[in-house]
Amino acid sequence: MTDLSKAQPADRVVPMVRAEAVHKSYGPLQVLRGIDLEVRAGQVFVLVGPSGSGKSTFLRCVNHLEKVDGGRLWVDGELVGYREGRGGRLYELKDREVAHRRRDIGMVFQHFNLFPHMTAAQNVMEAPVQVKGEPRAAARERARALLERVGLADKADSYPAQLSGGQQQRVAIARALAMEPKLMLFDEPTSALDPELVGDVLDVMRGLAEEGMTMVVVTHEMGFAREVGDALVFMDGGVVVESGHPREVLTDPKHERTRAFLSKVL
Ligand SMILES: Nc1ncnc2c1ncn2[C@@H]1O[C@H](COP(=O)(O)OP(=O)(O)OP(=O)(O)O)[C@@H](O)[C@H]1O
C-alpha cells in the first residue's frame, strides 16, 4: 500500500531539495527547528545567516552526513528522512542507499579537505577510481580536463601544500565535479581565503551556474548572491526568517532580524 505521508505533491516538477519542517538536534541543542524550503533543478540557492544558525547542519543533512530527526527531507525526489508524527518512528535511508546517493552530491567545504599526500590530479581522480571503479587512465585524463576547467591545467602534478588556498579550493571543486554530481553543496567556500583569492573561486562557481548546475551555497559573499543567486534564504536560530530573490531580500529585507544581519555583512 502506498504510504501517502512519504509522497511529494505530484502536480509539479520534482524539486532537487525539498524540506518540510525539518528538525535536527545535537543532544539538547535544537539546531534546526522547522526548516521549510525548496531548491529547484538548475537553481543557485543561497543560504545566509549568522554563525550558529544551522546552515552547515542543513547542508550536512542534505548530503546525508547527518540524519534529520523531525519533519521531512527529500533530495532529488527521494525521501531521505522523516518522522511519523510527534515522537513517532524515524524513517531514514539504509547505509548502503546513503553511500549510493551521496555519489550524486558534490560538497565543497571551507577548508578544502584535500589529501595532502596526493597531487591535484590524484585528488580529483581518487573517487571515480575508488568509488565508481573507473579505469585509472580514463580517470587521470578526466582529472586533467577538470583541472583545466577550473584554471589549473599547469598544477595537475602539484601537491596541496604547493598551492594557494584559492587553488586548493578549485581543486576541491574539480574533485567534486569528477563524480558528475546532480547537486553541488558549497559550505562557505571562500571564507578561509585571502581576499585576493576569492574572485577566482567565485568565477569557477559562476561558470558552473551558467552551465545549469544546481547549487546550494552557504556564503557571506553578498555580491555573488545578488549577481548569481536565483533564490536566497535568511536563516536565524534554526528557522527560515525570510526568503525570496536575492536582489529583493538584499535590497529590501522585510524582517528586522534580516536587516540587522545584513547591516553587518553588506
Ligand atoms: N556535531 C555536532 N555536535 C554538537 N553540536 C554541533 C555539531 N555540529 C554543529 N553543532 C552546533 O550546532 C549549531 C549550528 O551549527 P552550524 O555549523 O550548523 O551553524 P552555521 O550556521 O553553519 O554556523 P557557521 O556560520 O559558524 O558555520 C552550533 O551551535 C554548533 O556548535
Automatic annotation (TrEMBL):
Q: Topology versus the membrane, per the UniProt entry?
A: Peripheral membrane protein
| Catalytic activity reported | a polar amino acid(out) + ATP + H2O = a polar amino acid(in) + ADP + phosphate + H(+)
Which keywords fit this entry according to its UniProt record?
Answer: ATP-binding, Cell membrane, Membrane, Nucleotide-binding, Transport
List, for all copies, the residue spans of the domain called ABC transporter.
17-262
PANTHER family reported in the protein's UniProt record: AMINO ACID IMPORT ATP-BINDING PROTEIN, L-CYSTINE IMPORT ATP-BINDING PROTEIN TCYN
What are the EC numbers? Answer: 7.4.2.1
Any idea what this protein is called?
A: ABC-type polar-amino-acid transporter
Q: Which Gene3D superfamilies match?
A: P-loop containing nucleotide triphosphate hydrolases
Q: Where in the cell is it found?
A: Cell membrane
